[in-house]
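pls design
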């Protein structure tokens, strides 16, 4: 039995790790058992709705449709999966991410050179291959030292898709990342993002999920050296038949780094619909290791349940192994919008429908206003308005 098989057997015997930053990892799908509904990291999503991504019974595989556009300074390559540059962010932590890696023919490597200051965004567009097809993707975005870049990852179309979108944020670089899951309503997407943040690097990572039948995105951030500064923000809106899960980990393993997490979501259902109830799940894990002195971190998740027939789960977790930190905290809420705000606006002569729209738009704008690409920001604001109009109809 190989050493890796021995480790995998230890994992299966439930002695997996000392904390959530030390999960078993592997690039090989066969090193992971098929997950069950009682497994902690899968207990919220209906495995039956994953179309076989978790157990290998998925529909016929089609080639991944990944297109990259960007400034001339950026290099785009198709490279082998065992290229050291592609594996630099680490291996998958679950079976579906490993399936995506194992099933990919190659990896798309996007490199921003040292000291580059990109004035236009790099856009990565992933398009589904159709309802009866399954696609897998592996993408690595690597920014050089002291560079500045904005990267937009867009998902569109129909189908079943799993991928690894990994990042290495170079020393002293400043990166804005926007992940826009604008799938058709019949798409299923499970994606892992492993993010390594080097010394004095700054990352602003934004996730927007409005489309898809089932969408599960799991960013995992690891600080490699002191001075890192990361903000993770997200917005999501679920209707009847949709399941959206955001599961995050921020691993403070070195001193003097900062992180802030802010995700906001809304749900609206229809109890008379034959579709499953609108459902979202947000799990935010922050780990402060013993050696991570001087850490400053906070995470927040807010959810608005707009109608009956909708359910939101919000689970913040803070694991602290040292008391020598600048600060740490978390907050999460699930509820209906503020009736006092509605009363205030109505008392000023604003119709109830218009007042409701204003409150919900204001709720999301705290996050949306942080997105640096104006066209993307405007599009997402318009999507929120469209969701509200759908609720009224």
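designed seq:
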């Amino acid at each position: 039995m190989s050493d890796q098989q021995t480790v995998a057997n230890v994992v299966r015997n439930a002695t997996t790790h000392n904390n959530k930053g030390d999960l078993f990892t592997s690039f090989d799908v066969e090193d992971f058992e098929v997950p069950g509904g009682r497994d902690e990291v899968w207990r919220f999503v209906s495995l039956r709705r994953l179309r076989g991504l978790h157990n290998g019974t998925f529909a016929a595989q089609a080639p991944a449709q990944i297109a990259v556009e960007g400034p001339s300074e950026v290099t785009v390559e198709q490279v082998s999966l065992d290229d050291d540059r592609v594996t630099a962010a680490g291996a998958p932590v679950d079976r579906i991410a490993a399936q995506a890696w194992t099933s990919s023919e190659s990896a798309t490597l996007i490199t921003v050179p040292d000291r580059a200051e990109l004035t236009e965004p790099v856009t990565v567009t992933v398009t589904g291959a159709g309802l009866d097809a399954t696609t897998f993707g592996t993408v690595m975005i690597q920014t050089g030292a002291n560079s500045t870049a904005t990267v937009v990852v867009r998902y569109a179309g129909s189908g079943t898709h799993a991928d690894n979108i990994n990042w290495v944020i170079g020393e002293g670089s400043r990166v804005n990342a926007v992940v826009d899951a604008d799938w058709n309503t019949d798409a299923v997407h499970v994606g892992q993002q492993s993010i390594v943040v080097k010394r004095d690097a700054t990352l602003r990572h934004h996730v927007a999920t409005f489309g898809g039948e089932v969408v599960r995105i799991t960013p995992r951030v690891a600080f490699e050296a002191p001075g890192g500064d990361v903000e993770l923000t997200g917005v999501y809106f679920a209707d009847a038949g949709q399941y959206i899960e955001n599961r995050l980990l921020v691993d403070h393993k070195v001193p003097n780094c900062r992180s802030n997490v802010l995700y906001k979501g809304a749900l609206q259902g229809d109890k008379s619909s034959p579709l499953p109830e609108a459902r979202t799940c947000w799990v935010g894990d922050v780990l402060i290791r013993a050696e991570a002195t001087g850490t400053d971190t906070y995470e927040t998740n807010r959810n608005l349940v707009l109608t009956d027939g909708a359910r939101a789960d919000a689970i913040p977790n803070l694991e602290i192994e040292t008391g020598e930190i600048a600060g740490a905290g978390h907050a999460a809420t699930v509820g209906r919008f503020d009736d006092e705000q509605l009363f205030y606006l109505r008392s000023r002569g604003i119709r109830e429908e218009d007042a409701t729209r204003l409150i919900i738009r204001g709720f999301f704008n705290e996050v949306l206003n942080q997105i640096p690409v104006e066209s993307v920001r405007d599009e997402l604001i318009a999507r929120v308005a469209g969701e509200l109009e759908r609720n009224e109809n």
